[in-house]
Write a structure and sequence with these properties.
This protein is of the alpha/beta class. The protein contains 6 helices and 9 strands. The strands form 2 sheets. The chain has a 7-stranded mixed beta sheet, with helices on both faces. A two-stranded antiparallel ribbon has the order 2-3.
Length: 215
């Protein structure tokens, strides 16, 4: 079975400029994903990017690179077109699609997802972390799906999974058949909260920097 990973890394991040190659504890952010993939059961680790700096850094850390056309790297486009582009150019059975925003990604999590797929019980898997219910409010201070006069206790509410976007795994067949990152019978790779943090904003970046400084 051929298993390849694809790390998608646009050069035009608006929330955190040059986010994918920003230095965290002496290493570019994207290197954490590359190293986790290289240390896993993945046979080839690829980066899809439209940016020369990201391309250079990715190669330095051991990844292969596929050029991402500018039309597939706009602020509004999803990652699926880049996954499909890769699927048309490369041979594989399973694709591990990694978003390079998680500095705490580990090879053991990728391997767990691969093992779930190889069990034959799932068509796709994705990463999520288990959460307890907390009161949520919209931007106009209206409670979301709960009543302030009947406030539930946390322990009376079921736990739930929150998708974190660390990585997704699907087959080439399913990807080309559906055009999306997960389909069919979907499984969840449970990531502990302490490893689930993703950098999507400047606040996330500062939080992760403080954590890395302490370890």
């Amino acid at each position: 079975m051929i298993i390849k990973s694809l790390i998608t890394a646009r050069g035009g991040s608006k929330s955190v400029p040059k986010k994918n190659i920003i230095i965290l504890k002496g290493k570019p952010l994207i290197s954490y994903s590359i190293l986790a993939s290289l240390g896993s059961k993945v046979s080839e680790t690829w980066v899809s990017t439209d940016n020369e700096d990201i391309k250079s850094v990715s190669k330095e850390w051991g990844a292969k690179v596929i050029d991402r056309p500018k039309e597939l790297a706009t602020d509004t486009i999803l990652n699926e077109p880049s996954l499909i582009q890769f699927a048309h150019k490369e041979e594989f059975d399973l694709l591990v699609f990694i978003q390079p925003t998680g500095p705490f990604i580990k090879a053991k999590y990728i391997n767990k997802g691969i093992e779930m797929m190889m069990s034959g019980n799932y068509d796709s898997v994705f990463t999520a972390t288990k959460k307890h219910w907390v009161p949520k409010w919209d931007i106009n201070a209206n409670p979301i799906d709960w009543d302030i006069y009947k406030r539930p206790r946390r322990q009376d509410k079921e736990e739930f999974y929150e998708e974190i976007g660390m990585f997704y795994i699907t087959s080439k067949t399913k990807l080309l058949e559906t055009g999306i990152r997960y389909s069919g019978k979907i499984g969840i790779v449970n990531i502990p909260f302490y490893d689930s943090l993703q950098i999507d904003s400047k606040e996330d970046l500062e939080f992760v920097k403080r954590i890395l400084k302490s370890i």
